[in-house]
Specification:
The structure holds three protein chains of three kinds. Chain A is mainly alpha-helical. Chain A has a domain of 185 residues: MetI-like (MetI-like fold), CATH 1.10.3720.10. Chain A has 15 helices and no strands. In chain A, α5 runs antiparallel to α6 and α7 crosses α8. Chain B is α/β, with parallel strands linked by helices. Chain B has 22 helices and 25 strands. In chain B, the strands form four sheets. Chain B has an eight-stranded mixed sheet, with helices on both faces. In chain B, α13 packs across α14, α14 crosses α15 and α15 packs parallel to α16. By secondary structure, chain C is mainly alpha-helical. In chain C, 67% of the residues lie in helices and 0% in strands. The chains are: A mainly alpha, B alpha/beta, C mainly alpha. Chains B and C meet through α10, α12, α13, α15 and α16 of B and α7 and α8 of C.
Chain lengths: 314, 687, 308
């Protein structure tokens, strides 16, 4: 297992170099004079010059990269242009919020998606299957932020069963923490649950056509056991491999959802940076999100080896 | 005479909705007694597998409809049982083995787990005793170190070993009847011989009945007591195995027997059954075989044909008894000389194709870093010659490297070492442009006619492609050439604008042959061109290839795993084992007087389409699977499985020597001239 | 070795050449029949035609000038004057939805076109020629994949500066890795097909093989991918516009309309409904057409890099 991890990490080196370089190279996207653009159109010339020097914007890209990477490996992602707080500090403060949101949404996704996928996949063509297909098609077409707003109008404004906005720390009050997050979780997790349901269904339909399912049937096993033991474990492989990607979509969605519910997590921090073109913050968020994604995929790989015995040897 | 264990009468299986129901099996009946084996034989699409699944109760209940006048097992009416009761029988009193050992085991669980599960599903035994039973049956089917291997996952087993595991699983609860659906079709012929032996001895030991589904008449002759021949969803003949082979009562059975390559002297056109098995949606209304039958009369197409009794057999033919049908009458070989001498026998004639020291090794990469952990020596220094107008047969089992040889000769794969010369031109070292020119003279026909034709190109475009690439013709001239080529392979001009999916396997193979002939090549490499085809279609394509050779003076490199087909079409035969050629010589010489122990084993593993001869024959059965080409054994590569292995074989590579019969053999026995005198005779005496 | 009756069967020469019966069915026709048999895809196709028509004819279809403000009648519900009500500046929502159709469809088209034009050569290069080009390209695609699409699109759009064209470009950038992967995977599969080997054995050069055999067989999964891409592009554009990084006033798009509605969500929720429903219908239409295409294109199984 250790060797497996070491090999995996080695394999990641070129990827990490590419990502970090790409993040630094984001500066190339800014049209015209980056310093002027970053400072803001109305900023005085002195401020523009200060920003140019502080971020070494007239240095060659490779030099910028070297400095940024040098900082990054020491845990320094620079500071926001507009507030003087270090990016890393801000991210550390805000990460619990975003993780609360994303992990809860993941739970919603799994709790809806997996049962729906199994129900549909074990009886393809049935009425239930068609109803679930309607549900997934519709959910995939719903913009998450629109769902969020409609939920706010219904549950927070009209019926007043949950608060509309804001975040309460879990350590302050677990109950309030949850009531503030029900709507964001659902809004964020709904689309993912539809995708997952479709993947589980498709994978299960495929697996149920495999020869070894017929073998299990020929052994006289009851249908419950054929599905429970022989089908599900194999059918889990395909959806699991994309679960990391699914989680990345959830993280992406937090930017809008946090904005609507004023949760004050990384997503909202990122949003403010986007509006202000706060380059160090944008870089920091992108890199942290990418690292989260990579870590998650490592976890998925480990789970994968459990499901697929062939991989264990290799 | 005991009562039959399984009785089937008037079985009918339909698929699809009631509106457009498709009758796939119609009025099928047979019976099996304990201790006996019934063969269900027929070509693909005849309903054999569906029949087997229907008897087991394994057809999907929603999509299919099974009816029967009589479906009794051990005195119980299966049609009256509930689904739960049928399930209790399955895996217990009735067990089944499937065709594909590679996919029939669940990859996510150990084999021991999967066998123990069968035990626990039907016996109230705890996990430990179920596991014990699993190890016991694994031992029974001859898995070495059964206790240890029970903890392995299916991917750690070879195809033959997996089929043993499948058999072990089926036998776990000592079934009264075992239904085997083409259990050896996916296996190599030497492994097939082992599995057949195993099944026969287990049957005797356990006294169970077997239903053996197969398309291979040799297998039927080898293992079955009674046979039901299926054609287009019906049983057309039901008889004892000796009776069926010596005096077939239905023209289809006679046609099948006649079209086997063994039935015709080498080099002569094979008997064929014209046309193809009809699809379920367009069955002829009366006698379903009538459109293909050489004895057809007006009354055959007048009314439905019942199964007539004809002595000890029954036959679905209105002319039963009046037809002079004959089966396999003799197994004495006609040792008639070849019709033409091998062109290589003529002195001072340079061969068309000259292959020297041809080798290919592929890197084996493992792990996430794709590190090269070893090399597979797929082809290891082989020499071949093919004369103008000659056919060289290349025989070997899977993994022997024969298909790689085909690709190396055409340089579709770059050789690692060695030379290939066509008309003296060094194919192995040509640059890209001259290579493309050189390819005019050598063409290839692939095994799988389904993947060798572009699904998005019309037949006309496919056959015209070589002309477009190499010749400067007007489109009218080109079309004329394409029509002429299609005509040569027996396809009409209306095929031009059709797409491959509209053709059957045999017809697609004809299209592939037409494409190969477009540039008038001198050499055509045929890579298993008939092995994916049914018996009756196979003989049509073989005849076509032989006729084209005569008409166009082609040379063939004919690659196959079926020695009887190769022997029929070839002037000379080369036998490959693990990347090396172990024996090469005149076709009749290799076939009748094989020298290398592997050739002998290969020949004796082919079941003969003659039950009497098959029973009398003493066979060389090889033990174990071929070693992995990743770690070929040192010395003679065959020594791990060779029945005559000596000390020297384990260390020294044998040098090729010429035998008195003119063959070239790489074997220490031949060098020492110490081959057991009886070995060769034994291998062929029945063959 | 065994003898047989001589008259068992006529020799092959005596048989007339095989002529197929019936009517030829080209793969495309076969696909068409299957697609039309799929009811939901067929209906969705009808809706798609309407959407495209509205997008093209938008300026002539609006009941009134979409930017005309009725400041006395802001945030109204549906009425005879304003079928879908008015927004926070008293503008006719129906007219804005109609004009928004044009903007949203145009952006989706831009996105998909740019992504396809960039991805096809890259996918072919990586898949057919392989080796180092493949290694380098796929590592870059992997790197792009580690950043969630929306975050990457937002970052690119923000740095380029807020405008609809920049948003379209940013979304296209996000699409490229998924498209390249699909094309590459398909090319890799096709390259292993025997018919490619057969064509090589004839002496056909690589360019001709790609044009005649690879591209036609890659086309169908690509078409599916593109159809589903439209839906995703619409959603992404709405998201970017909602955050202020897409369409800018006085232009209008459905996402931007939602942004306006959001500010008054506590007082008057109605203006949320029409643009939201418009987005849902449009995305649903593209997804259903895409699903229908995938199911009717038969033997090609398509794995999607960006199902949502």
């Amino acid at each position: 297992m250790l060797a497996f991890f070491v090999r995996r990490l080695l394999l990641l080196t070129p990827l990490l170099i590419l990502i970090s370089f790409g993040v630094v190279a984001l500066v190339l996207l800014i049209p015209g004079d980056p310093a002027r653009q970053l400072a803001g159109i109305d900023a005085p010339q002195a401020e523009v010059t200060a920003i140019r020097e502080q971020y070494e914007l007239d240095e060659p890209l490779l030099v910028q990269y070297g400095r940024w990477l040098g900082g990054a490996v020491r845990g320094d992602l620079g500071s926001s242009i507009f507030q003087d707080r270090p990016v890393v500090t801000e991210l550390g403060d805000r990460l619990p919020v975003t993780l609360s949101l994303a992990v809860g949404a993941l739970a919603v996704m799994l709790l809806i998606g997996v049962p729906a996928g199994i129900l549909a996949g074990t009886r393809p063509g049935s009425l239930l299957d068609r109803l679930i297909t309607v549900f997934t098609s519709l959910s995939l077409a719903l913009p998450p932020f629109w769902v969020a707003m409609v939920l706010v109008v219904l549950f927070a404004v009209t019926w007043r069963v949950v608060p509309a906005i804001g975040y309460v720390r879990f350590t302050d009050s677990p109950v309030d923490w949850a009531t503030h997050l029900y709507l964001p979780w659902f809004a964020l997790g709904l689309g993912g649950s539809a995708t997952l349901a479709r993947q589980v269904r498709g994978s299960l339909v495929d697996v149920l056509e495999q020869d070894y399912i017929r073998t299990a049937d020929a052994k006289g096993l009851p249908p419950r056991r054929i599905i429970g033991k022989h089908a599900l474990k194999n059918a889990a492989i395909a959806p699991l491999t994309v679960l990391g990607i699914q989680f990345a979509y959830l993280l992406g969605g937090t930017v809008i959802i946090e904005q609507i519910f004023s949760l004050g997590g990384v997503g909202q921090y990122f949003f403010v940076a986007l509006v202000n073109r706060d380059l160090p913050v944008i870089r920091g968020v992108v890199v942290v999100v990418a690292l989260t994604f990579i870590t998650l995929n490592l976890v998925v790989d480990v789970l994968y080896t459990y499901l697929n015995p062939k991989v264990r040897l290799g | 005479m005991s009562a039959p264990l399984l009785e089937v009468e008037g079985l009918r299986v339909q698929f699809g909705s009631s509106g457009g129901a498709l009758t796939v099996v119609d009025d099928v009946g047979f019976s099996v007694e304990a201790g006996k084996t019934l063969g269900l034989v027929g070509e693909s699409g005849c309903g054999k597998t569906v029949t087997a699944l229907a008897v087991m109760g394994l057809l999907p209940p929603k999509a299919s409809r099974v009816q029967a006048r009589r479906l009794r097992f051990d005195g119980r009416d299966l049609t009256a049982l509930s689904r739960a009761e049928r399930r209790q029988l399955r895996g217990d009193a009735m067990a089944m083995v499937f065709q594909e050992p590679m996919t029939s085991l669940n990859p996510a669980y150990t084999v021991g787990n999967q066998i123990a599960e069968t035990v626990q599903a039907h016996r109230s035994s705890d996990r430990r005793s179920a596991w014990k039973r699993a190890v016991e049956v694994l031992e029974l089917v001859g898995i070495p170190d059964a206790a240890g291997r029970a903890r392995d996952y299916p991917h750690a087993f070879s195809g033959g070993m997996r089929q043993r595991v499948m058999i072990a699983m089926a036998l776990a609860n000592e079934p009264r009847i075992l239904i085997a659906d083409e259990p050896t079709t996916a296996l190599d012929v030497t492994v097939q011989a082992e599995i057949l032996d195993l099944m026969r001895s287990l049957q005797q030991e356990l006294g169970m009945a077997m239903v053996f589904v197969t398309h291979d008449l040799g297998v039927v002759a080898d293992i079955c007591h009674d046979v039901a021949v299926l054609y287009a969803g019906q049983v057309v003949e039901h008889a004892g195995v000796d009776h069926l082979f010596s005096a077939p009562a239905h023209p289809y059975t006679a046609g099948l027997l006649a079209s086997m390559p063994q039935a015709t002297p080498a080099g002569r056109p094979l008997a064929i059954i014209p046309g193809e098995v009809p699809r379920p949606e367009d069955q002829p209304p009366a006698c379903r075989f009538a459109p293909r039958c050489p004895h057809v009369q007006a009354r055959c197409e007048a009314a439905l044909v019942p199964l007539y009794r004809a002595g000890a057999a029954s036959s679905r033919c209105v002319r039963v008894g009046e037809l002079p049908l004959r089966g396999v009458v003799s197994t004495v070989d006609d040792r008639s000389p070849r019709q033409r001498p091998s062109p290589l026998d003529l002195p001072h004639r340079a061969p068309l194709l000259e292959v020297r020291g041809l080798s290919k090794s592929f890197p084996v990469q493992r792990g996430v870093l794709r590190r090269t952990v070893g090399r597979v020596q797929a082809v290891d220094g082989i020499d071949l010659d093919i004369g103008a107008g000659e056919t060289l047969g290349l025989v070997g089992e899977s993994g022997s490297g024969k298909s790689t040889v085909a690709r190396l000769i055409l340089r579709l794969v770059e050789p690692s070492a060695g030379s290939v010369r066509l008309n003296g031109q060094p194919i192995h070292s040509l640059a890209a442009a001259p290579l493309r020119q050189a390819r005019r003279q050598m063409q290839i026909v692939f095994q799988d006619p389904y993947s060798s034709l572009d699904p998005r190109a019309t037949v006309g475009a496919t056959v015209a492609e070589p002309l477009l690439v190499h010749e400067d013709l007007s489109s009218a001239e080109r079309e004329e050439r394409v029509i002429e080529l299609l005509g040569r392979v027996g396809l009409g001009r209306h095929c031009l604008d059709r797409y491959p999916h509209e053709f059957s396997g045999g017809q697609r193979q004809r299209i592939a042959v037409a494409r190969a002939l477009a540039l008038e090549p001198q050499l055509v490499v045929c890579d298993e061109p008939v092995s994916s085809l049914d018996v009756s279609t196979q003989s049509q394509v073989i005849n076509l290839l032989m006729r084209l050779q005569r008409e166009l003076g082609l040379s063939y490199l004919f690659i196959a795993h079926d020695l009887s087909v190769v022997r029929h079409i070839s002037d000379r035969i080369a036998v490959m084992y693990l990347g090396r050629i172990v024996e090469v010589g005149d076709a009749e010489e290799v076939y009748l007087r094989p020298t290398h122990p592997y050739t002998q084993a290969l020949l004796s593993a082919i079941p003969l389409p003659d039950p009497g001869a098959q029973r009398r024959r003493r066979r060389t059965v090889l033990r174990g699977d071929p070693p992995s080409p990743l770690q070929p054994p040192p010395g003679c590569r065959f020594h791990t499985r060779c029945p005559h292995v000596m000390d020297i074989c384990r260390t020294a590579d044998p040098v090729a020597v010429t035998t008195p019969g003119g063959s070239t053999v790489a074997c220490h026995l031949a060098t020492a001239d110490a081959i057991p005198a009886g070995a060769a005779v034994e291998a062929q005496s029945s063959g | 070795m065994t003898s047989i009756r001589e008259t068992a069967a006529p020799p092959i020469e005596a048989i007339a050449p095989y002529e197929p019966g019936g009517v030829s069915v080209a793969p495309f026709r076969r696909f068409g029949q299957r697609f039309l048999a799929n009811r939901s895809a067929f209906i969705a196709l009808g809706f798609l035609v309407v959407l495209v028509a509205v997008a093209i004819l938008a300026p002539w279809l609006t009941p009134e000038d979409p930017s005309r403000q009725h400041l006395t009648r802001i945030n109204e519900g549906p009425s005879r004057d304003f079928w879908l009500g008015t927004d926070d500046l008293g503008r006719d929502i129906l007219s804005r939805i109609v004009i928004g159709t044009r903007v949203s469809m145009r952006v989706a088209l831009q996105v998909v076109l740019v992504a396809t034009v960039a991805a096809v050569p890259l996918g072919l290069l990586a898949g057919y020629f392989g080796r180092w080009a493949d290694a380098v390209l796929m590592r870059v695609m992997d790197a792009l994949f580690t950043v969630p699409p929306l975050i990457l699109a937002l970052a690119v759009a923000s740095l380029l500066g807020p405008s609809l064209n920049n948003a379209a470009f940013a979304i296209a950038v996000v699409f490229v890795p998924g498209f390249v992967r699909v094309i590459r995977a398909q090319v890799l599969a096709i390259r292993e097909e025997t018919f490619i080997e057969a064509s090589r054995s004839i002496g056909t050069g690589p360019v001709r093989i790609i044009a005649r055999h690879v591209l036609p067989n890659v086309a169908s999964p690509l078409i599916v991918q593109v159809a589903l891409g439209f839906g995703y592009a619409l959603l992404a554009e709405a998201g970017l516009s909602f955050l202020g990084l897409g369409a800018q006033s006085p232009d209008t798009s459905w996402g931007l309309m939602l942004r306006g509605a959001y500010d008054f969500i506590l007082e008057e929720p109605w203006p949320l409904i029409p643009p939201g429903v418009a987005i849902v219908i449009a995305v649903l239409v593209f997804n259903l057409v895409g699903d229908g295409l995938r199911d009717s294109l038969g033997r090609e199984t398509v794995t999607l890099g960006l199902e949502r």
